[in-house]
Design a protein that fits this description.
Cofactor: FAD
Organism: Neoroseomonas alkaliterrae
Keywords: FAD, Flavoprotein
Structural class: alpha+beta
Largest sheet: 8 strands, antiparallel
CATH class of the largest domain: Alpha Beta
Shape: globular
Domain FAD-binding PCMH-type: 35-216
Radius of gyration: 23 Å
Oligomer: single chain
Helix content: 25-40%
GO molecular function: catalytic activity; FAD binding
């Protein structure tokens, strides 16, 4: 322990080691403000070899390591515990894009590359890196893979796991596994890369990844619609899927209250329809064909949906600025809810066919639990992932409401379980949901996870307190 600071300082230099309390403070709390921890230092390695050397030095000293990217976790997955016997290892300085191949349609990027930077680099090569979500300007490649992030385009392109071909990982003993392969087919034993995606840094530290790229869309369109109810929203999704499944890039549901909050709290956000409604959808269409008539497709589907009473009103973007403004209504939901007051967030998924039932039943159950509670469900109806968020009743003390967080989450999860869903869709487990793992994944599944953890990290130094109860 006495030699640890000197060893790290020699390895990393002044730019790579932060020990002043003011300098390390931003790394000790999560984005939502749910957790605050303590750490001996923040390590900022600039290369894979430096990461490996940091891990080896800490392992020998018995010091835990908390990997951190953009620190945008919604579940406290990158926040250290409060005992002060850990270091935060930031990947922010490892921000190089090592290679882009427009023939293989791959990009090899280091863990500290911000998602938006990866998108921009792909675009410069006339390709598309499709992962997209509200935190893309801060979140980093290592973090989105460690949490298997989802986002808005999962219905078309899949989660982060589906966008990953290979990984470079520093193991808990300091070994470097170079699995940066860009092969579509590679049946050679266990697919080790998939162990680390979604493991939230508990099995090793992702330092680089080879990612799939796609052809850039040459036509796009966005629709914002008010619909009769949750069933109508799902019916419209089915209509678009039957008309042209390949054109759907995103299909998002929003409650009337959620849109009200965005209009109320976010400057520049306005309802683009003549009348308020209780239910809305946003449909994002895209095609790689320059001659794709997406507006014609939209008008065809909307016409039939209006005749059936499913769509009440609709607006088609028509321009890049207008499309961005429509998307902003959806993307500002988390910030608008924060400004409205305290909220309990539930990142859950059910089979797509069960989404309307989830929204209705969970809203009603929470209303019985806390009269006056305000359900604000929104999210990715097209892939079954709804953020079943609950806003405090008007006039209720925020602290008193948040004290009921566990009860609210359990109420929502009871409905999710009955609908064969998952209590964690795209945000992961982190610190927030470890107590749920036993009841949801207990038995053989959780036992296998513990065996894998023990085999790779026998001393338990990698991101302790996360994922496993």
């Amino acid at each position: 322990m006495s030699d640890l600071p000197d060893a790290l300082a020699t390895l990393l230099g002044p730019a790579g080691l932060l020990t002043d309390p003011a300098d390390i403070a931003p790394a000790l709390s999560d984005w939502r403000g749910l957790y605050r921890g303590a750490a001996l230092a923040v390590l900022r390695p600039a290369s894979t070899q430096q990461v490996a050397d940091c891990v080896r030095i800490c392992a020998e000293a018995g010091i835990a390591i908390v990997p951190q990217g953009g620190n945008t976790s919604m579940v406290g997955g990158a926040t250290p515990e409060g005992n002060g016997r850990s270091v935060v290892l930031s990947l922010a300085r490892m921000n190089r894009i090592r290679d882009i191949d427009a023939v293989d349609m791959t990009m090899t990027a280091e863990a500290g590359v911000v998602v938006k930077a990866a998108q921009d680099a792909a675009a410069e090569a006339n390709c598309l890196f499709p992962l997209s979500f509200g935190g893309e300007g801060t979140a980093m490649i290592g973090g989105i893979l460690s949490t298997n992030a989802g986002g808005n385009t999962t219905v078309r392109y899949g989660n982060a796991r589906e966008l990953m071909l290979g990984l470079e990982v520093v193991l808990p003993d300091g070994q470097v596994w170079n699995g940066l392969r860009r092969l579509r087919k590679d049946n050679t034993g266990y697919a080790l890369r998939h162990l680390f995606v979604g493991a939230e840094g508990t099995l090793g530290i992702i330092t680089a990844a080879t990612l799939r790229l796609f052809a850039r869309p040459r036509a796009s369109e966005v629709l914002f619609c008010s619909v009769a109810d949750e069933d109508a929203a799902l019916a419209v999704f089915r209509r678009f899927r039957e008309a042209d499944e390949t054109a759907i890039r995103a299909f998002e549901y929003m409650s009337g209250l959620g849109v009200d909050f965005a209009v109320k709290h976010i400057p520049g956000v306005a309802l683009p329809l003549a009348q308020r409604a209780d239910h809305y959808i946003l449909v994002d269409l895209a095609s790689t064909r320059a001659d794709a008539d997406l507006q014609g497709l939209a008008e065809q589907v909307l016409g039939a949906a209006m005749e059936a009473g499913e769509v009440l009103d609709a607006v088609i973007g028509g321009s890049e600025a207008r499309r961005a403004a429509l998307w902003r209504i959806r993307e500002e939901h988390p910030e608008a809810q924060r400004k409205e007051g305290a909220s309990v967030k539930n990142d859950v998924s059910v089979p797509v066919s069960k989404v309307p039932e989830l929204i209705r039943r969970a809203s009603a159950a929470c209303g019985r639990l806390i009269p006056g509670i305000r359900p604000v469900p929104f999210g990715h109806m097209g892939d079954g992932n709804i953020h079943m968020n609950l806003e405090q009743p008007e006039g209720m003390d925020p602290a008193a409401f948040l004290a009921r967080s566990h009860d609210i989450m359990e109420t929502v999860n009871a409905v999710v379980r009955e609908l064969d869903g998952s209590f964690s869709a795209e945000h992961g487990i982190g610190r927030l949901k470890t107590d749920m793992m036993e009841s949801w994944r207990g038995g053989a599944e959780l036992d296998a996870m513990r065996r894998i953890k023990a085999a790779l990290d026998p001393t338990g130094i990698m991101n302790p307190g996360k994922v496993l109860p």
